[in-house]
Amino acid sequence: MIKCHLSRLMGERKLKVMDVARDTGLHRNTITLLYQETSARIELDTLDKLCKYFGVGVAELFEYVADSK
After folding, report:
1. What's the predicted TM-score (pTM) here?
2. What whole-number distance in Å separates Cα of residue 3 and Cα of residue 61?
3. Which pLDDT band holds residue 69 (cuts at 50, 70, 90)?
4. Which of 15, 18, 36, 67 fits a 20 to 30 Å CA distance from 8?
């Protein structure tokens, strides 16, 4: 399973979904889906914008967590 740390990054910086959407130019719904970890996919351009905005690498934004089976 892939875990998205967008909510943690936003919380640390006290940012709202609309703040990130306005500052990055990404659609509010895109940010919301990633924030709630309900997104089925992510565009590379979106990933690039979020990494630049938060000043982090892909590994700090997303993490692979093995299923507990």
Report:
1. 0.91
2. 8
3. low
4. 67
